[in-house]
Amino acid sequence: MGFCSGFCACFERLKAGRGAGSARSDHADDALDSFDLFFDLHALQIATSFFSDLNKLGHGGFGPVYKGLMPNGQEIAVKKLSVDSRQGAREFTNEVKLLLRVQHKNLVMLLGCCVEGPEKMLVYEYLPNKSLDYFIFDKQKSGTLDWTTRFRIIMGVARGLRYLHEEAPERIIHRDIKASNILLDEKLHPKISDFGLARLFPGEDTHVNTFRISGTHGYMAPEYAMHGYLSVKTDVFSYGVLVLEIVSGRKNHDGRLEREKADLLSYTWKLYQGGKALDLVDPTLARCNPDEAAMSVQLGLLCCQASIADRPDMNSIHLMLSSDSFTLPRPGKPGLQGRRGRWTTTSTSAFSNTNASSGYTGATKASAGSSVVEEYSRNSMSHSSIDEGR
Ligand SMILES: Nc1ncnc2c1ncn2[C@@H]1O[C@H](COP(=O)(O)OP(=O)(O)OP(=O)(O)O)[C@@H](O)[C@H]1O
Ligand SMILES: [Mg+2]
């Protein structure tokens, strides 16, 4: 961005109530950076009618989320971080600065933050169609998502995750891929939300809270649930569960169903082994593409393999989904043990220490005492997606 266009963008944002009083640097560049980053608390109060309940969109593990309207007409979503972060304001804003550079059409766009005293907030683009769980788990609404839309969502989430793992300025392991973290835009295109949140809360128990509140143990890879061992394949496992949920319109665990059907992964495996994979398809769907549906079931199972090495990476997954000629390997029994086990630890960082251009060990050890080690090259299968990003 040239200085002039940068200045104009700043000016537009200032007019919208962003940045007032927040730029502390004397340097023009730093000032531009700061203006790009900060929202004024008062502007957010006005935009959200003083965080009124009427504007509340929901409440997750990190705090409430409010809809806001800026003076320039832009709709925003403000996440008030009620979990106390031990990070100081400077570290927090540094992390936000980094996350602002993480942009892709299948990621919810972070617009900036607000830090005033102990209060910290994140400001996102507003997405009008709520989250995926709102549709797929509701029999009245699930029909809104026909097969073509569902397959597009499966594909879009794969693209977003591939970007986070392979192409973002810093590698990001999401750690909380689940239906409520997939938001839908006005055309029902998917956008992954809450990426990078773990990085904003280093050393905190926030993720434990998040999981407890939203009950997302069912998405967790066994090695992560049992040993706190974190790698990009942790996200792949959660993505696999999500794919099966999208195909079936069922939650990963449904205690109301008979025992053999209650756990989605076990049930899918049973159907697959019996050659009845298509029986999994959501009965509320009037039509579906059987080839795509069968492939999605197989892919979901592959992503949920017990052995980390048997799970494909997001590059391969994207290739499997987009190529007509790709033959998927046959999956073995998925990893079931430990997914519902007690959560014992948290990671100190969801990012690797290396940047996108370096060689990479694709795993971080989230718990002291875990002995699992996995190494693989980040370029095991390279595939360009420059045209797919923002
Ligand atoms: N950018 C956004 N645009 C529109 N709605 C949003 C946005 N971000 C969040 N929401 C809504 O707010 C609700 C709460 O979001 P939040 O991320 O806090 O909770 P969650 O996803 O259920 O749990 P978690 O804290 O584990 O992510 C979501 O279900 C979603 O409907
Ligand atoms: Mg969320």
Can you give a write-up of this model?
This protein is an alpha+beta fold and 390 residues long. It is 36% helix and 13% strand. The protein has 14 helices and eleven strands. Helix 10 (232-248) runs antiparallel to helix 13. The longest helix is centred in the middle third of the chain and has 21 residues, at 147-167. The protein is globular. The structure holds adenosine-5'-triphosphate and magnesium ion (MG).
What does the secondary structure layout of this molecule look like, with pairings?
Layout: H1 3-15, H2 28-37, H3 41-47, E1 56-60, E2 63-69, E3 75-80, H4 89-100, E4 110-116, E5 119-125, H5 132-136, H6 147-167, E6 170-172, E7 182-184, E8 190-192, H7 197-200, H8 206-214, H9 222-227, E9 229-231, H10 232-248, H11 259-262, H12 264-273, H13 290-303, H14 314-322, E10 351-355, E11 363-365
Magnesium ion (MG) binds at residues 60, 180-181, 193-194.
Organism: Prunus avium (Cherry)
Domain Protein kinase: 51-321
GO molecular function: ATP binding; protein kinase activity
Question: Summarize this, please?
Answer:
With 390 residues, this protein is α+β, with helices and mostly antiparallel strands. The chain is 36% helix and 13% strand. It has 2 domains: 3-125, Phosphorylase Kinase, domain 1, CATH 3.30.200; 132-385, Transferase(Phosphotransferase), domain 1 (Orthogonal Bundle), CATH 1.10.510.
Characteristic terms for this protein:
two-stranded antiparallel ribbon; 2 domains; Phosphorylase Kinase, domain 1; 14 helices; binds adenosine-5'-triphosphate; globular; alpha+beta; Transferase(Phosphotransferase), domain 1; 390 residues; single chain
